[in-house]
Design goal:
The complex is a heterotrimer of chains A (about 100), B (about 625) and C (about 500). Chain A has about 100 residues and is mainly α. Chain A is about 75% helix and about 0% strand. The longest helix of chain A is centred in the last third of the chain and has 31 residues. The relative contact order of chain A is 0.13. In chain B, strands 1-2 form a two-stranded antiparallel sheet. Chain B starts with 5 loop residues before the first helix and ends in a 5-residue tail after the last helix. Chain C is an all-alpha fold and about 500 residues long. Chain C contains 21 helices and 2 strands. Chain C starts with a helix and ends with a helix. The chains are: A mainly alpha (about 100), B mainly alpha (about 625), C mainly alpha (about 500). Chains B and C meet through β1, α5, α6 and α24 of B and α13, α15, α18, α19 and α21 of C.
Chain lengths: ~100, ~625, ~500
């Protein structure tokens, strides 16, 4: 089991994070953006779990924290989707480029 | 003598009183002014007689402390000061009296008397100052008094310009005095006359510094006494009421320059160069102003140029180490020139014009003014037995004895000019036929003629206090106990007196030929030499020259600064605000409202921070 | 009265006025103006009491107030990094506080000409007064800075709301320049506080006087020099020093005359006060090396202002440039670095405060009647308004340094000082004395003398309430001119301290 090195976990997390970041910054569809943000969150979770096993002082805290993060992420996704639906009802679009009312 | 400080305070009281209550008093103000100046005069006489028997008195108190240096204020009664006190308070009292008639009916009668009080206060304060700083203070105050009185008819544009010019021209001189005074202070450590003289005598001030400070102080005297090249304000100052011209621009304030040089005489004698400068400026002014006086048409302007010329004489005397001659002429001039101005005022009062070409034949109408004017004219022309003769003689002897041959002959020519233009004035005003429009000409009231009579008597007898024939009382007394002031009377060759007499009689004769008998045409000069006439009539174009050079240079600087302000200073400000605004615009463009843009920006920022962190080694290093 | 509270009451008594004004109805004009004036009176009375007690030989230290205020961490036990509420007086600040109190009261009288929103006006006005008093009374830099900022905000609104046509522009200009000045000042103060661990002015001066002071962080010579330059910029904006002066021209022209009385009379003086108190007080050695620069800047200010004042068409602009020119004399005096010069500079601060207050009050009087201050359109005013014209002339004569008035004493001493150190520069500066006479007479005679340019029928001369400020100011100007010891003796102890710091 211990044959998988920490660098593999971290690389996976990095790749996931980059995919998520790319998606969050470039996609026009807000649903995709939300999904991308979930990806980034999960890459962080991977990091947390990996460090809880391979960190300098291995402990359970990391895994507990990742559970917290998952819970928070679920809540956030729910709120995010709710806002998205509200916006869709108002604007009839989920295109993020048109969501610039904060500028004004 | 211990209470001599009170002398200047009387006119000050008059000033303050009239300022507060003058409006209610109206023409009664005259009595207030007369009363206070009379008190000053009486007390001055007491002080003068006291001074005959007692030594110089000086009292001072601290006025201002700067570090360890105490600047003092006080008064000193030496011979010169005591004499000046009497001259100033007497002329002032007479002018106060005269003005009661002359200014009668003026709306601002009380203001006039208030200003007169202010001026008299300042002038009396000036002549008892024991130190340079106090002298400077009163020096400026007399200037302010003169300024107010010249501009008394404030609604006249000419009066406004003349007042401004007088203040500014004298101020230019005053700055010279200020610089000289301060430089002396840093050399000597004090403004006191005594200490300055001691230091100069002891040689603790370098020769160059003595010359420099003496000349700078003389610049102040040049401004105040209307010497070339700062003389232009004095003729213009004739815009003021005539009694003012008599008091300020003939007898007292303009003589302050001469007084200053006399008061600082030991400083000037310590530097041959400084003396030479004084003598040259004096002689040049004497002949220069006299030549302008030859062709002027305004009665007061002729007298003004003659004043400038006579002051030049006094400067020449002082510059030729003739301390007594200078002060003596100052005294006699004060009397006869005040007389001439008051008489001219009486003429103007009668005929309501100042243009002498419009006058004539007034001898029969003005039976008191006419002879008095004649006395003054004779005195100023240096006709024997009148006061001006003796004092002018002293000056010529002093100039000759000091070896200033060229200046001596300049002075002789100026004497010829003086006799000529003064009698030209006299003949044009008083001889010939009366003009038809001058039917209702009356002699002035007695309140005006009385002061003239007093001055007329003085213009005759004042010379006898110092004559080669009856003793040189004044001269001996003035220099008594003070080696630095030179000898009392200087013996000179007898031919000088004869030359002076002949020259003045020649001038009178020529004037009589042209304007009395009219055997020579009046237009002799203007028709033969129109260019010379033009130059003289336009006062050598000095005013125009100043307008072109000084005023334009000032304008140049002003507009230069204006454009610097407008383009450079404001430009820099605009540039800076432009940069700030530009940055703001870029910033606001970034704020697109695109959430993804913000996210990208945050990510780039984070990445940059990490890179910097990695390169520098971070916070913990 | 308990002396411990004396100074606090002196500084904060206008607050009472603000509270009362807040309770008054908005449109009871006379009452508001009366209360507004009345609120400045306690300060005036108290400052005069302090002044005469000091003249009578009392010690100024007894007014010192000190109370714990702000602590940072555990350093307070070591006496470091704590900011106290401390007010105190010395000769210089006492003189300036008296000046502030007098000018504020008179400006409150001058505010009768304010046309609208009296309530807000007077509340801001009184807040401004608190700020000015506090600036002079503050004993530590942080407190000084707080009061310094308190003066700025009311001033912004007073200019921007009650000024003339371009008031907003003037107000912003004021805010930006002074805001930048404040920012620089704040940087200096924070650096000093962080490195020295104290912000008390006297403690700082003592620390800087020692070779290697025991401070939490070192303060190198070059840092000191940099701090001084920053101070010069910060206060140079206020004074103002060329080329940082343009904001002040706009304020002079656009603000209501009563506010310009305060602005020109006192606010500009904070610059000079700061330079003397902090520049000379805290960095005497470095200040000495700047002497030449200051003197040159002073001469530039003097001449630049004078030449430009000569060609202005608006009398307010003439006075604005005249202020620049006269502040040059302050710099000249400071640049001389000797007793005569510094005393001259302080005299000039007071003298110009009084004279410009007088002149701007007079501007207010005829602006009220003619709605213009253009010189050419006012010609011949002496005919219709002889008393106003007379005082205007007196003010101009005082301003151009006529002996017997305060302007002469200060000008004379400043030049006396500079001639002792840099005679050539001083001689160049003397051109300024001539130019001052030239531009002032041109402007004032242009307005008062000559042919009447307008109809004066129906125009009343000064009214009764208007006499008060004019007479008080003229009397003070003459008093200082005739008997300067009234000031110099008050300043003596402070001057000795400064000279001691400068090393002799």
């Amino acid at each position: 089991m211990s044959s998988v090195p920490i660098s593999a976990y971290l690389t996976l997390a990095l790749i996931l994070f980059c995919i998520g970041l790319y998606g969050a910054l470039t996609k026009r569809n807000m649903v995709i953006v939300l999904i991308s943000i979930e990806l980034m969150l999960n890459s962080v979770n991977i990091n947390l779990v990996a460090f809880s096993k391979f960190g300098m002082v291995p402990s359970i805290t990391g895994q507990v924290f990742s559970l917290f993060t998952i819970a928070i992420a679920a809540a956030e996704a729910a709120v995010g989707l709710a806002i998205l639906i509200a916006l869709y009802r108002n604007r009839k679009t989920v295109n993020i480029d048109e969501m610039n009312t904060m500028k004004h | 003598m211990e209470n001599a400080w009170i002398i200047p305070l009387f006119p000050l009281l008059s000033f303050l009183f009239l300022l507060l209550f003058g409006k209610r008093l109206k023409e009664t103000s005259a009595y207030i002014g007369m009363l206070f100046t009379l008190l000053s005069f009486i007390y001055s006489l007491v002080v003068l007689f006291d001074r005959f028997s007692n030594p110089t008195y000086k009292a001072e108190a601290t006025w201002l402390t700067i570090g360890d240096v105490q600047l003092t204020a006080g008064f000193e009664i030496n011979q010169l000061n005591a004499l000046m006190l009497v001259i100033v308070s007497l002329v002032s009292f007479l002018v106060h009296t005269y003005s009661k008639g002359y200014m009668h009916g003026d709306d601002r009668f009380h203001v006039f008397y208030a200003y007169l009080g202010l001026f008299t206060f300042a002038m009396l304060g000036l002549v008892i100052s024991p130190n340079l700083l106090q002298t400077y203070i009163f020096w400026e105050l007399v200037g302010a008094g003169s300024f107010l009185l010249i501009g008394f008819y404030f609604y006249k544009e000419e009066a406004k310009a003349a007042a401004k010019k007088a203040f500014i021209m004298t101020r230019i001189g005053d700055v010279g005095l200020l610089i000289g005074m301060i430089l002396l202070f840093w050399q000597v450590g004090s403004f006191e006359y005594d200490e300055i003289f001691q230091a100069v005598e002891a040689g603790s001030v370098s020769a160059g510094m003595v010359t420099l400070t003496a000349i700078l102080i003389f610049v102040g005297a040049v401004g105040k006494s209307g010497q070339f090249p700062l003389h232009t304000w004095l003729p213009d100052a004739m815009e003021g009421p005539t009694p003012v011209s008599a008091l300020i621009h003939a007898a007292t304030m303009v003589a302050a320059g001469v007084y200053l040089v006399a008061a600082l005489f030991p400083l000037f004698t310590a530097s041959e160069t400084a003396l030479m400068v004084v003598a040259i400026i004096g002689a040049v002014t004497a002949i220069f102003a006299a030549s302008i006086g030859l062709v002027q048409k305004d009665i007061k302007r002729v007298l003004a140029y003659s004043t400038v010329s006579q002051l030049g004489y006094m400067m020449l005397a002082l510059g030729s180490a003739g301390y007594v001659a200078g002060v003596f002429h100052l005294m006699t001039h004060a009397f006869f020139k005040a007389l001439l101005f008051l008489a001219a005022g009486s003429v103007i009062h009668a005929v309501h014009t100042q243009n002498i070409e419009e006058m004539g034949g007034l001898w029969k109408k003005l039976r008191i003014t006419g002879p008095l004017f004649l006395i003054g004219t004779l005195a100023i022309s240096g006709v024997p037995l009148f006061s001006g003769f003796f004092s002018k003689d002293e000056i010529l002897i002093a100039a000759w004895a000091h070896g200033n041959t060229v200046l001596f002959w300049l002075a002789v020519i100026a004497a010829f000019f003086t006799a000529f233009y003064m009698f030209r004035l006299f003949f044009m005003v008083f001889s010939g036929n009366a003009r038809s429009e001058m039917k209702n000409v009356h002699e002035s009231p007695s309140v005006m003629t009385f002061p003239m009579i007093v001055l007329g008597i003085l213009a005759v007898v004042a010379g006898y206090v110092n004559t080669p024939w009856f003793g040189t009382f004044l001269g001996d007394w003035l220099v008594d106990g003070n080696e630095a002031l030179g000898h009392g009377h200087i013996e000179g060759p007898a031919w000088i007196m004869i030359v002076a007499t002949v020259v003045s009689l020649l001038g009178i004769f020529l004037a009589w030929m042209m304007y009395g008998k009219r055997s020579i045409s009046r237009d002799w000069l203007s028709s033969r030499m129109p260019i010379v006439y033009g130059i003289l009539y336009n006062k050598y174009y000095i005013d125009e020259f100043y307008q072109l050079s000084v005023v334009n240079a000032t304008k140049f600087f002003s507009y230069l600064f204006h454009y610097i302000e407008k383009f450079l200073v404001e430009g820099i400000v605009k540039g800076i605000t432009g940069v700030v605004q530009g940055l703001g615009r870029i910033g606001s463009k970034i704020q697109s409202g695109q959430i993804q843009g913000y996210g990208a920006m945050a990510f780039v920022g984070l990445a940059l921070l990490l890179v910097i962190f990695a390169i520098t080694g971070g916070y913990l290093k | 009265m308990n002396e411990a509270y004396f100074l606090s009451i002196l500084v904060f008594s206008p607050l009472l006025g603000i509270i009362i004004l807040a309770l008054l109805p908005k449109n009871s004009e006379t009452l508001i103006k009366f209360i507004g004036f009345l609120a400045t009176v306690p300060t005036l009375v108290l400052s005069l009491i302090a002044f005469f007690q000091y003249r009578g030989g009392a010690d100024l230290n007894r007014y010192d107030v000190k109370a714990d205020w702000i602590h940072f961490g555990d350093f307070a036990e070591m006496g470091l990094f704590k900011i106290d509420y401390e007010l105190g007086l010395n000769g210089l600040s006492l003189v300036l506080i008296v000046l502030t109190a007098i000018v504020s009261s008179l400006a409150a009288i001058a505010s009768v000409h304010i046309k609208s929103e009296w309530k807000g006006y007077f509340m801001l006005f009184l807040l401004l007064e608190i700020g000015m008093l506090g600036v002079f009374a503050a004993e530590n830099l942080i407190l000084f800075f707080i009061f310094f900022e308190i003066t700025m905000i009311p001033m912004f609104f007073l200019i921007g709301k009650w000024g003339y046509f371009e008031k907003e522009k003037a107000a912003y200009s004021y805010l930006i320049y002074n805001g930048l000045g404040s920012a620089v000042l704040l940087i200096v103060i924070v650096i000093l506080f962080a490195r020295a661990g104290t912000s008390n002015i006297e403690a700082l001066a003592q620390l800087m006087a020692v070779e290697n002071p025991n401070t939490p962080a070192p303060i190198s010579e070059s840092l000191k020099f940099g701090l001084l330059i920053s101070l010069l910029i910060a206060f140079g904006v206020k004074l103002p020093i060329f080329p940082l002066h343009t904001w002040m021209l706009r304020v002079h022209v656009q603000a209501p005359p009563s506010i310009v009385m305060i602005h020109s009379g006192i606010l500009l003086k904070i610059g000079a006060f700061g330079l003397i108190r902090f520049g000379m007080g805290i960095f005497p050695e470095q200040f000495q090396s700047l002497a030449g620069l200051l003197a040159v800047l002073g001469v530039i200010n003097l001449l630049y202002g004078a030449f430009l004042a000569w060609i202005q068409k608006d009398f307010k602009m003439v006075l604005a440039y005249s202020s620049i020119s006269h502040m040059g004399i302050v710099l000249i005096g400071l640049g001389a670095m000797n007793e005569a010069g510094i005393q001259g500079a302080i005299f000039q601060v007071v003298s110009h405060g009084l004279i410009s207050a007088l002149l701007f009050f007079l501007v207010g009087i005829f602006y009220e009647r003619f709605h213009t201050s253009t010189i050419s359109s006012l010609g011949g005013m002496a005919k219709g308004m002889p008393i106003t014209a007379g005082f205007l002339l007196a003010g101009a004569l005082a301003s151009l340094g006529l002996p017997g008035m305060s302007g002469f004493v200060s000008e004379f001493m400043a030049f006396l000082g500079l001639f002792g150190e840099m005679p050539v520069l001083a001689a160049i500066g003397c051109i300024g004395i001539i130019m001052t006479a030239v531009y002032l007479l041109r402007a004032v005679l242009g307005m008062t003398y000559g042919k009447a340019h307008r109809e004066f029928a129906g125009i009343t001369d000064m009214k009764s309430v208007e006499y008060v400020p004019v007479l008080v100011l003229t009397a003070l100007i003459v008093l200082i001119g005739v008997y300067p010891s009234v000031l110099s003796e008050t300043l003596q102890a402070t001057l000795e301290t400064i000279m001691l710091g400068l090393g002799g």
